[in-house]
TrEMBL record:
Gene3D superfamilies named in the record: Enolpyruvate transferase domain
Active-site residues, as the UniProt record annotates them: C124
Protein name (database record): UDP-N-acetylglucosamine 1-carboxyvinyltransferase
Role description: Cell wall formation. Adds enolpyruvyl to UDP-N-acetylglucosamine.
Domain (Enolpyruvate transferase): residue spans on this chain: 11-431
Locations listed in the record: Cytoplasm
Top EC category: transferase
Lineage start: Bacteria, Bacillati, Actinomycetota, Actinomycetes, Kitasatosporales
Family matches, as InterPro entries: Enolpyruvate_Tfrase_dom (IPR001986), Enolpyruvate_Tfrase_sf (IPR036968), MurA_subfamily (IPR050068), RNA3'P_cycl/enolpyr_Trfase_a/b (IPR013792), UDP_GlcNAc_COvinyl_MurA (IPR005750)
Species this protein is from: Streptomyces glaucosporus
Amino acid sequence: MTGTDDVLLVHGGTPLEGEIRVRGAKNLVPKAMVAALLGSEPSRLRNVPDIRDVRVVRGLLELHGVTVRSGEEPGELVLDPSHVESANVADIDAHAGSSRIPILFCGPLLHRLGHAFIPGLGGCDIGGRPVNFHFDVLREFGAVIEKREDGQYLEAPRGLRGCKIRLPYPSVGSTEQVLLTAVLAEGVTELSNAAVEPEIEDLICVLQKMGAIISMDTDRTIRITGVEKLGGYNHRALPDRLEAASWASAALATEGSVYVRGASQREMMTFLNTYRKVGGAFEVDDEGIRFWHPGGALNAIALETDVHPGFQTDWQQPLVVALTQASGLSIVHETVYESRLGFTSALNQMGAHIQLYRECLGGTPCRFGQRNFLHSAVVSGPTKLQGADLVIPDLRGGFSYLIAALAAQGTSRVHGISLINRGYENFMEKLPALGARVDVSS
Ligand SMILES: CC(=O)N[C@H]1[C@@H](OP(=O)(O)OP(=O)(O)OC[C@H]2O[C@@H](n3ccc(=O)[nH]c3=O)[C@H](O)[C@@H]2O)O[C@H](CO)[C@@H](O)[C@@H]1O
Ligand SMILES: C=C(OP(=O)(O)O)C(=O)O
């Protein structure tokens, strides 16, 4: 149940205009925090956003004896892992279901303590989200895993040894699992079919600063030579390309103009190409990117989500709202998660015309074809959106509802708004700063 303070009234129909700032990436910062566990000295992480996933990982690290304090500059954390061995982890159950990051504690805890307990995971409900690859790779390193009622218990009776692994799919989390385990494992690890998202490259930069030896080939192969000891790091997190794209989509759907300070072109190239094809305009400068609707009709497009360097799946939901305003039929093929289009039914209640299909409607057949998953969509536009009562289903779906409510005529009641804090820093301040007319329900 959500309380009244978890409901936002959005009075739509006003273009978003102005400037906001994005800080470090939600999909890097918590992992860099976990990496600090591997070091023998304190680490400094800069550009850390104040989002729930960071708070959850901070709590977990503190529970494991890592001292976490603010550094000298705003958004800087200093993480000192000196007392991990003597920590008391009795309260770990309180962290069950809070995020997906706890699974990445496996390797670092096995190295430091020889055992690890991982509570049930959280994260967005956008598909089955199994963790079989994670446990398969940990077994390859020598971990023994026991399923318990409230989580997973791991031990490494003979230590962790480097190995040769091929992922069945370039999973982001599993690649990070391998990196965080292999850097201190004995010998060499070769990971093929690895994910190569920018956040993974940034995690590799963090680990290299700590003393790790990691190389990346052009064919999704990552080689790690284990070392005996790692130090601390001093690192500025790469910007959140997912949040930046969300505000870009909001600018387009509301016919506005938003300067996203901190947004970086390099990690957003695929998004920027798609944005331009839809008819959105953008201008890159040294500090950020301005995104705007240049007037006139938007274009329907064919869009297929994919692993990097393809179109990131977390960009999909916000952009779909803008596609409801494009002229003609857009096709969206979601190939990363089997159930990431359910949010469109609420958009249809607002007046959108979005039809879901089980077939692979994109150019490439994917893992979900012929398997009964509604993972393709045809968006027919442009459609006028009307305000509605909306219940936030997941992080990006939730932000999409905010965009739809901002673009719609009339007032929407958006329930479950606090879920957005998981990945969007200070969005309740950013919205009015961009001219959005929003009220916390009373
Ligand atoms: C905290 C974080 O960084 N989250 C991101 C991360 O999630 P996450 O790391 O969970 O996503 P993965 O890349 O692992 O998942 C991709 C696909 O692989 C499947 N899979 C994954 C692991 C496994 O053990 N077995 C399995 O079958 C998943 O069900 C999914 O279909 O990458 C996703 C894909 O870019 C993003 O949408 C998420 O925002
Ligand atoms: C799916 C997402 O995140 P998580 O993996 O944390 O659920 C997301 O950021 O859109």
